Structures are given as structure tokens and as C-alpha cells.
Amino acid sequence: MARDFSDPDMEARLIANSQRQGFNNWFGVTCVAAGNGQVEIEVKIRPEHRQHHGYVHGGCVSSLADTACAWAAATAARADVVTSSFTFHFLKPASGDGLRAMARTVRAGRTQATVEVQVYSETESARPVLCGTGLATIAVLPARVAA
Amino acid sequence: MARDFSDPDMEARLIANSQRQGFNNWFGVTCVAAGNGQVEIEVKIRPEHRQHHGYVHGGCVSSLADTACAWAAATAARADVVTSSFTFHFLKPASGDGLRAMARTVRAGRTQATVEVQVYSETESARPVLCGTGLATIAVLPARVAA
Amino acid sequence: MARDFSDPDMEARLIANSQRQGFNNWFGVTCVAAGNGQVEIEVKIRPEHRQHHGYVHGGCVSSLADTACAWAAATAARADVVTSSFTFHFLKPASGDGLRAMARTVRAGRTQATVEVQVYSETESARPVLCGTGLATIAVLPARVAA
Amino acid sequence: MARDFSDPDMEARLIANSQRQGFNNWFGVTCVAAGNGQVEIEVKIRPEHRQHHGYVHGGCVSSLADTACAWAAATAARADVVTSSFTFHFLKPASGDGLRAMARTVRAGRTQATVEVQVYSETESARPVLCGTGLATIAVLPARVAA
To answer: Could you tell me the pTM of the whole model?
Structure first.
């Protein structure tokens, strides 16, 4: 499926930043598409992402959501960003073997953006299940003056 | 320092559950004290907890906060719980080599609890820095009838 | 426009409850449609709804959002409900002469529901402006046994 | 009781702004003390603040909380502010004849502040009851250049 918001330059920049992150490398975040205030990212679930009932740990679900929100805001702001706050509602246990987060910037301001996100649990043989939804405030960092 | 809310039986139960979690084993959560609606937990920071500026990744900060809230509610409810929703505000970058979360149940209801949490970044040589604060709604699961 | 979620019996019950509320009578909430987990409500703005720049006061915007969420959950639960928590993001000033809130239940559980809401500011001569978005946890109250 | 954060100049400015707000005049907000990032405000409850069970309407409880957060941030920023987002948890019904909100800025940044708030329901003859708690992000507006 084509993602019409895809911006290959932006995707390359987000992926390069992500590869320099110890956590994201461990987590295994993959960028499906990013650009114009929107993002779709996914992660393949491994045993160390799970909790004791076999579901994906809430910390992994919300981390993917948070990352999607920050990346979506970065594509809108075309600047460095950092999550200021986020609210996440867990709707269903994530029992599949993949997680997909779709984030969309609903307001892009000069110093902050508001982003909404949905996370889906996926299994090869079944329809994706909406397992959580959230809202984030992402702070846009002032550009650094080059030395 | 003595934690007067400590309940050793509850701590043993929480630790046993945690050790069966792939994510928590990877994350390295340690229970300092838990009981009577309160919890103090910590994690020693490793390179794979960090992002590209060297700070602890926001996903790790909020995961520790979420875990603290769920555990605090579990000690109040004396039942299995699951996070229903949480809101987290990032206040300062976590630049230290340890994170500590302190959670306190502000309302323990029959089907849900409200919990507040603070997360501190710690370094051996300096005062702890408050790096985030949050509020969570934790759902209390109905007891399962034994077979 | 037809609202296909409309449930006239449910609407009558919500309106009757609302008319017994001092605050809602003052506020002037009108039910456009309600049923099957969804709600559309509106309020005509009067001077005492505004703040000192002439915009609708944030307390009125979020009150309408909160009411829409509670009503949406009530139509899904077919029971009395009460707001447990809500998060609201203000996106644009509400400068129009009417406010419209659209709420949709995204998860209806036995003891709580998660509802999302959008609030629009409206003026006769212009397109509605999305002025805020939110997420709420609504608690479903246990049915009272009749005496 | 003395409020050591009280800043009379700031209080005068907040009260003057509030008196120009249709909503606040109707609501009846009184400033007990404000300054240095903190605020204590109260409202005497009238019938049009209540819902159909006789409790203070949630919209009034959260409006008071939101106002307290914005004012607290304004005293820290010494600038005009506007609520960007807030999360509020209702803990107990507000059955008293007064509401009191206490807000405290936990982080005051250049473009935004994070503020926590507690709301108490009060009756002459009984101890105050904590009826809600929240967290807000308050945006600090850029200063306008005088003409």
C-alpha cells in the first residue's frame, strides 16, 4: 500500500537518528513511512518485549506510540523535537507478533505540536487489533546556531 | 532509609511476577520497597536504555513510571491489575546512570485505582533530578475463581 | 444531516437527566444525536461563556467535551456513568458563536469505557474549526437494585 | 494561614484579568493567594454549579483546576499564558458548598510550564475532601511588542 505522506528524505533522517539510539536498536523499530506530519512505524515482537501473560509489555506498546508521535511532529516541524507529555489508553492486550503505530499531527505550532496515535497488534492470519490510542504534546526545539 | 510502607509478602509476589516478564528482565527493574499503595523501584541504566544524545530514552522513563503505578495499585488492591491509561510529563532529560520511580495510590476503588508517580534521574555524585511526573488509571481485575 | 447512530429513547433519557442539572441548564447544552456509543452535542455561546479576549473560556470547551464523552459512554453502557479522568488538548481559540462536540466510544468495557472527542468552533459564515481534542475514561456505575 | 508564595502585585493582575472574563464572573472564582509558581483559588458553590445528584458538576471542578494551573504558570512565567492541555482525574464526588484548588508549577520553561493541581471539596463542619487531581501543560505566550 502506498502511503501518500511519505517523504524519503525525512525518512532517511529519522532512520539515521534512530540507529544511533541504543534503545531503538534493541527495540527494533522500523519506519514504514514518514512525512508531512504523519508516521507509520512497526516492530516485530520478540520474547523480551513481552510480560508474564505473553502479551506485549505495556512499556513497549507505549514506547512505540511515543516514538511515532515524536517522529510525526518532527516531519511537521522539520526540526529536532522531544516529547513533552503524552497520554496513552490501553484498549486490548497486544497478543500478536507485531505492533504497528500510526501517528498524525493534529496541530503543528511554532514551539509545540499535538499528535494523535493508534497502535495495532498484528498476527499473520488475522485482522489488526486496535490495542491502544493516545495523544502527545511534542516540543519543537530551537534550531542550534552552527559554530 | 526505612520505607514504612514496605510489605515483604507483597514485594515477594511482585518480584516473582516481574521475573516471569521478558521485558522486565531485560529492563532490569529492582523493587526497593512496595506495600500499602506505594512503591519505590529503580533501574540501573545501560547503553541500550539510552537515545542518541546519551539520555535515557523516554520509553524507558515512562515504562518505569507505568510499572511503578501498576505495582502501587496492586499493593492497594491486593489483586491482579493492568494499566488502563496513563499520562506522563517529561520535565528534564535523564542524564544519570540510574532511574528511581516513586508511586503512590491516591484513590483505591473496587474496579480501578488512581496513582501518581515521580521519576528521578540519579548519579552517584549529585542530587537526584526529578525528570518526570505522571498520573495513571489502573484497572483492578476481577479475581479468578479457582478450578 | 442524518446521524445514523441516533437512538431516540437514549436521547430522551440523556436530555431528561441533563435538564435536572443546574450547570447544564445554565450552560445550554443541546443534544443533536446520541446512541450506539456516539454523541453529538452543541451549545450556543453567550457572553458569560467567554474569557477576556472574547474567546470561549477553556472551562466551557472542556466541559462540553467531558459531557459528550460521558453521554457517549452512557449510550454504549446503557447504564449510569461518571467521568473517571480526561485529557484535553486545546488546539485553536474558539472564536465562533457556537461549539459542537462529537464523541465516539473506542472501547466499551464492563466497568469502564474509553471515549475520544473533538470540539469544533462554529460561525454561521465559515467552516467549523477544530478547537480541541481529548480522550476520557468513563466509569460505568453498577446498577442499583430496585427497592 | 499565611501563604508564603503570595505576591500581591501578581494577585492584583490576575484578579483584574479575571474580572474581565464573562465566565469567571459567572463562576465566582476568588484568588486566595498567587505567586512564585503557586496558586490557591476557591469558589462558593451555587445551584447552577451542580449536576442532578447534587454534586458539583465535573465541568466546574475541572474548570477551577484548569484556571488554577494557568494562573500558577502565569506567576512563574510573568507573562500571558494559555492552557495547552490538561489531564484531570476525578477522585470523589464534590458534595460540599465550596471548592478549593491548589496548583504548583513543577517545571517552568521558556515556552511552556508543567503544573500539578489538587481540588478539595469543603463544608463548614468537616475536613476538606480531595476530589480531584491533575497535570497541565501551560503555553507561555511570546510578549507583544508595544506599539
So the answer is: 0.95
